[in-house]
TrEMBL record:
The gene is fldA_1. The lineage of its organism: Bacteria, Bacillati, Actinomycetota, Actinomycetes, Mycobacteriales. Transmembrane segments: none annotated. It comes from the Bacteria. It comes from Nocardia cerradoensis. Residues 43-121 form the NADPH-dependent FMN reductase-like domain. One of its GO terms (molecular function) is oxidoreductase activity. Gene3D superfamilies: 3.40.50.360. This is Flavodoxin. It holds the Pfam family FMN_red.
Amino acid sequence: MPTLLIIHHTPSPFLQDMFEAVVAGATDPEIEGVEVVRRAALAVTASDVLAADGYVLGTPANLGYMSGALKHAFDTFYYPCLDSTRGRPFGVYIHGNQGTEGAERSITTVTTGMGWQQAAAPVIVTGQPGKDDREKCWELGATIAAQLTA
């Protein structure tokens, strides 16, 4: 059974809303045969990443960069997973109060280095997530999970 790994840093209620919407999309009953594993960015291991077939990354934009927790996760698994995870699909959601471009750029840099394939448009939210934003997060989770069934 394919596995979707959601690696997230969720320090705020706004990010919690986004995370829950991603999980709801990924675990939609119409998407059968995908195991969805959730790991906090500070707890994810190289073994978790190696065992997964696709990824969704969630982070706040902190001072124009991905969170330190997500950066730590990448530092932890980058080299152990570099050659073994090339070509795997991923998606990303980012929340910020301003200046999310640097966070998106830094994630793109690392995932490009990993050889991962962006399989859905990033979901980037500034301020409080609205209904539209939560729907985009749901679609992100559902899209990545559904691609693993193909």
